[in-house]
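Curious: why these numbers?
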Amino acid sequence: MSLSTTYEVRDNLALKSVPGFFVQDDIEAIAVAVRKWLWARVPPRLGLKDTSDDRWAKFLALVEKLNEESPPETSFKFFLLARHGQGYHNVGESKYGTVDWDIINGDEEMIWGRQYLHFYHFKVSSYRLLIRLTADPLLTPLGRQQAADIQREMIIEAASGLPPPHKRYCSPFSRALDTCDISFAGVYKDHPHPVLVVENCREENGVHTCDKRNTRSYIASYKPHFSIEEGLTELDELWDPNLRETKEEVSLRARKIIDMVFENDTDSLYISITSHSGFITGFLQAIGRERYPLPTGGVLPVVVKRTQPPSS
C-alpha cells in the first residue's frame, strides 16, 4: 500500500531522538509504571523534568542553543505528540476482541467502523438522493474527558511559560480532530497558525473500517477553523479493504511528516501533532526510539535531531 507521496523521503538524512528532558525518556521506568497502573496519560508539566517556574523558557532556549551550536546540516525541533482520546472503536475492540470487532463493526449500542448506505427520499427535482456515510468514529464521553485532561495541563503549563506551538498538525479523522480542538481550546488567546489537517498523519491504514476517513467536505464543515492541506482529496483514495499498511510503511509515512516539518517549518521550533497510536509508533521508529505505550488521550514530548551530509 502506498500513501501520499507529496513529501519525498530523503534517504541521506539521519534522524534520532534526543533524550534527557522528559520523564517519558526513561523507557524502563515507564514500563514498570504501566504494569502497575501508575502511569499518567498526561504527566505533570507534560513530562518535563525541570520543575522551575521558568522551565519552558529554559527548555526551549536549550533546544535553540543546540541549533545555534550545531553545523548547518544539523537541526533540532521539539515535537509534542498526542494520541486521540478514547473513540467508540476502542470500546468496540475491548468489548468483542480484535477479530470479532473487525468483522461486526458495530452493535445495537454504537457503530465504530462500518461503511453503510442510507437512502433518503426528497422531493427535489424528482430525484432520489443516495448518501453514503462512513462511520469515522467519534470520541466517547471518556475520550472527550481525556482530551480535556490535556487541555487542563496545557493551561497550567501555558501559565508557566509554554508558548503556543509554532505549528500544529492533525490527522483527518474525527477522533483526532476533536482531541486537537479540545486540547487547545481556550489555552491561548491567539495561535500563530490554524491547525493544519494532513493526510499522512492518519492512523495505520487499510482493512479496519474505523481507519477510513471521511470526506474533505465533511472535515471542512466539521472544523471550519482548521486548515486542510491542498493535496487531501475529497474521498479517501488510500484506504484498501484488503490490505493493511505494514509497520515499515507507517514509519516511512511518519518520516515524510518529519522531513516536511524540518524543510518547510525552518523557523518553527515547537511542533504539535495530534494523531494515533500507529502513526506515533511509526514516528518513534523513524527517529530510532523504542515503542512507547501511549494510551488514548496520552501525550509524548520528544526532541528530534535531523542531520544531512555536508555538501561537498
